[in-house]
From TrEMBL:
Coiled coil: none
SMART domains (alphabetical): ANK (SM00248)
Alphabetic keyword roster: ANK repeat, Repeat
Cited InterPro entries: Ankyrin_rpt, Ankyrin_rpt-contain_sf
Organism of derivation: Coprinopsis marcescibilis (Agaric fungus)
PANTHER family documented for this protein: ANK_REP_REGION DOMAIN-CONTAINING PROTEIN-RELATED, PALMITOYLTRANSFERASE HIP14
Signal peptide region: none
Keyword Heme part of the UniProt annotation: no
Pfam families: Ank_2 (PF12796)
A single MF term (Gene Ontology): protein-cysteine S-palmitoyltransferase activity
SUPFAM superfamilies the UniProt entry points to: Ankyrin repeat (SSF48403)
EC top class, as a word: transferase
Protein name per the record: protein S-acyltransferase
């Protein structure tokens, strides 16, 4: 079986000559050597094994895949045709997930494999698996516009707005898999709902904005009845997604042509556009948002975090600096968990930010503890890739207490050891921790 999983036909031939070799052995997934050769697209190994084994229409793996489904999974037309010639299969047989051979061919992304199965009389093109996935949805995920167009030509566009168990249509799947060509093909279907929402109440425009898919956002914004102000389950709009996306500056600019930034807008967690911009870590977006509306820079979300806290948490020094430029910004803010800005900076790869905050005098409260009894030193000790820089900066602060214990009775040294941070542990040991 292991030989069948390799590309060594010679090894397979040698093993087949051994007396007592059991070619019908199965692995934990119920796959035989022949099954492995088929699903892994090794045509030569497949041909060799056929000299000693036979294709049976009754064989299935532990997941219910027959040889035809395995061949379809390979995406190799020649193997599919060979399997079809060697046994009489029910082309619409389903595995334990409700998938047919045609569904696997679509999933493989091979147009020729799909075409080979479409030639079979009685093949079901309307099959839906256990997750509610249609062939058109699967084709959209494959990013193969040729397969999508083939199915649309077969009339599958009549049910274009069908949803899977996650509330996602074929269009939503195309969005998630970033295929402009497939999106364009689907948008051309009469009756398509491009304002449809998934189980999280996200529209295609939100998904595109969240993913930073600039070309798709541009296409959607050209649609006459596109809804730009819809909110998802978290109260986020397409603009909110674009603002909070580190890769969303172009989408942000595109959405500004049809939407606006309001200082009154908040998500269900109390995040303003300024906080969302701070989350992105993009200083350009932060500064743009500040220019577009009059924000209270010290407004807090439902967890007590300000925009500056969000910027610090993002790990972006530039975003932090953009907010520090705002007159009256509170650098002593503490959230509901007792987390200070210095703690956030120490825990999110922010050495430059740590030094900036220390320069503002935040080291005077270096031993402040959050609700779990952790100081900024603990946050630095927990980091796996600190290489000691932040820790060194904190240890140089006059009055720092390395013996502080959290609510679990651990010191920062113990935390570093638990996290297997050898360098941090060494520094804390030398400091008397």
């Amino acid at each position: 079986m292991e030989a069948a999983q390799s590309t060594s036909v010679g090894t397979v031939e040698l093993l087949l000559e051994l007396e007592g070799i059991n070619i019908n052995s199965r692995d934990k997934q119920g796959r035989t050597a022949l099954a492995h050769a088929i699903s892994n697209s090794w045509a030569d190994t497949f041909d060799t094994l056929l000299t000693a084994d036979a294709i049976s229409a009754d064989y299935t793996t532990s997941e219910g895949l027959n040889y035809l489904s395995l061949a379809a999974q390979s995406g190799i037309t020649e193997i599919i045709q060979s399997v079809l010639q060697l046994a009489q299969f029910d082309v619409n047989a389903r595995d334990m997930y409700g998938r047919t051979a045609l569904a696997y061919a679509v999933k493989s992304g091979s147009y020729d494999a799909v075409e080979a199965l479409l030639e079979i009389e009685g093949v079901d093109i309307h099959c839906v698996d256990e997750q509610g996935t249609t062939l058109l949805m699967s084709a959209a995920r494959s990013r193969e516009v040729e397969i999508v167009s083939r199915f649309l030509g077969l009339g599958l566009g009549a049910n274009i707005n069908a949803k899977d168990e996650n509330g996602q249509t074929a269009l939503a799947h195309a969005m998630l898999w970033v295929s402009n060509d497939v999106v364009m093909a689907l948008l051309g279907v009469e009756g398509i709902d491009y304002n449809c929402v998934d189980s999280r109440s996200r529209t295609p425009l939100m998904v595109a904005a969240e993913g930073g898919f600039t070309g798709i956002v541009d296409v959607l914004l050209e649609l006459e009845e596109i809804k730009i102000d819809s909110r998802d389950g978290q109260g986020l709009t397409a603009m909110a997604y674009a603002v909070s996306n580190r890769r969303g500056s172009k989408n942000f600019e595109a959405l500004l042509s049809v939407d606006s930034i309001s200082a009154d807008y908040t998500t269900s967690e109390g995040l303003t556009f300024l906080m969302l911009a701070a989350d992105s870590g993009d200083a350009r977006i932060v500064r743009s948002v500040l220019q577009l509306a009059q924000f209270d820079v010290n407004t807090r979300d439902i967890h007590g975090r300000t925009a500056l806290a969000h910027a610090t948490k993002s790990g972006s020094y530039d975003a932090v600096e953009a907010l520090l430029e705002v007159e009256g910004v509170d650098v002593h803010c503490v959230d509901e968990w007792g987390t200070t800005l210095l703690m956030y900076a120490s825990g999110f790869r922010g050495l430059a930010t740590v030094n900036r905050l220390l320069g503002l005098g935040l080291g005077a409260n270096i031993n402040a503890m959050d609700t779990e009894g952790r100081t900024a030193l603990f946050y630095a000790a927990e980091r796996k890739y600190d290489i000691g820089n932040t820790l060194c900066a904190l240890l140089e602060i006059e009055g720092i207490d390395v013996s502080v214990q959290d609510v679990k009775g651990r010191t920062a040294l113990m935390v570093a050891i638990e996290e297997r941070n050898k360098e941090s542990a060494g520094l804390l040991w030398k400091a008397g921790g």
